[in-house]
Amino acid sequence: MGMYRGRGSRSYFYNGVFQNFVSGRYDDALQAVARYSAGNTTPSAYRKVYNMIVPVLDRIIRKGKLDPDDARALVRLNIVLEYQKNRNVIHGDLADGIKDALDDVRNNNQQARRLAEALRDSLDAILAYKFAAERRRVEGEEFL
Questions:
Q1: CA 61 from centroid of its chain's CA atoms
Q2: Which is nearest to 104 in space by CA: 3, 2, 23, 24?
Q3: CA–CA distance from 109 to each of 79, 97, 103 (Å)?
Q4: Is 12 a residue whose pLDDT tops 80?
Q5: Which residue among 49, 86, 115, 132 has the highest number of C-beta atoms inside a 10 angstrom radius?
């Protein structure tokens, strides 16, 4: 059975990070994260979005399936991401990539757990390798 491929996203986050996690190409995914630029997204803005998305993904992972409440929550997250993108709070590539990944989870109930796990891994990797590293770099400069 073929996997739902979203809307043909051109997002680097979706194609380079998320799809590599989906396919189990973890080294490629981490290399893509290392090359990723989240543009104008601040660590604080990312953390706010992250904290909204992760509980929904964790619920889907725990249950192993998607119910109507989860589907609605994923749509609401899509709307929030679009709003934050249009306010220039979240970089367009990141917002669009996450939205496409959320749509993949929502539109493929048979693979919902696996897709939610891949998105969770993607979001965690961006947090750890991009935003935590950037914060450490900036804080280190303050002491120089």
A1: 15
A2: 3
A3: 20, 19, 11
A4: yes
A5: 115
**pLDDT tens, 105-124?**
999 999 999 999 999 999 99
What is the sign of the dihedral through the CA atoms of 35, 51, 46 and 65? positive
Tell me: pLDDT of 1 over 50: no
Mean pLDDT, rounded, for 44-67: 96
Compute the C-alpha angle 60/65/67, nearest 5°. Answer: 85
Burial of 68 (0-12, 13-18, 19+ CB in 10 A): exposed
The pair of three-digit structure tokens given for residue 119, joined into one six-digit string = 């998105």
CB 46 within 8 A of CB 127: yes
Please give the single-letter amino acid code of residue 64: G
Residues 6+ apart with CB under 8 A from 135: 43
Instruction: Report the distance separating Cα 144 and Cα 140, nearest Å.
Output: 7
